[in-house]
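Researcher: We're teaching a course module on how sequence relates to structure. For the next exercise, students receive a sequence and then see the predicted structure as tokens, so they can try to spot secondary structure elements on their own. Here is the exercise chain.
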Amino acid sequence: MLKGAEYSERIAEFYEYIQNEEVKEAFALLVGTLTCFDKVTCRVSPQKEVRSIAIDLNGEWCFSIMPSHKKLVFQWRPPVIEMRLYIKDILKTQFPESFTDDSHKVGGEHWAIKVLSRDDALLLLRALGLN
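Model: And here is the predicted structure for the students to work with:
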């Protein structure tokens, strides 16, 4: 679900910021689908200088979607990595062209992929298995 109506306007701004139509479609598909799941909450992340949607799973900030002009970066954050719900080697196989784990963020390992199209978004939703 979308946490708080105040986030709707900001998420719409993120959508308009994206310049590539395929990426816009992927963004709408991901955000729209994720807000339909009971155990998932979407909100704008508290990092004001970064365009980012925080995706909470059972109350923990587990994923992020970060839109730019020409791509989305989807990120697995430390809480979900530590839950061992996802296997890095399987994700590398599913997303061979874009998977990375070299972000070296403070506070734990982060994994990320680039989402460039509706097909990428659909593959990601299947890989997440949140429904």
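Model: If you want an answer key for the exercise: The chain has one domain: 6-128. The longest strand covers residues 60-67.
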